[in-house]
């Protein structure tokens, strides 16, 4: 018996995964690309030479992407409910708290990637391989985690999108 999706509607399983992918793209990929572009163009050195402190620069840069990510999360949830008819039985506070926690991790990872790869192309490739690919394949979005081999199930515990997809499916 299918407890999560008794009607066996594919939208109920895939759309929460798509929301997690949007959050991953907004957080990691966009942050890595934008900050790497700043390194490429030389504007990062100008910002570091400004009177603003390093923590102020980081919070200003990541704060804008946090707001953008939370806005995209809100729009994606509204579209999931209105367009795809997904039932929403949870707390709106719980879904936004979970999304905020996931987004903080994704933004930090994007910033870390952009400091290592100061080239947009390399940053995009690393961000895609480090977050997008595992989020798509190992989060439970496309493939059921219970049907994976045990060694692969153990690896999924290290993929943050696994937890976000599970929470979104539950809510």
Task: Describe the structure concisely for a colleague.
The chain has 171 residues and is mainly α. It is built from seven helices and no strands.
Q: What would you say this structure looks like, in words?
A:
With 171 residues, the protein is mainly alpha-helical. It is built from seven helices and no strands. The protein is globular and about 60 Å long. The model has no long low-confidence stretch (mean pLDDT 84).
Secondary-structure blueprint of this entry?
Layout: H1 10-41, H2 43-49, H3 54-82, H4 92-116, H5 120-138, H6 150-156, H7 160-170
Catalogue the unreliable spans.
none
Order of helices and strands: HHHHHHH
Helices and strands: which structural class?
mainly alpha
Globular, elongated, flat, extended or rod-shaped: what is the shape?
globular
Features:
171 residues; mainly alpha; 7 helices; 76% helix; 0% strand
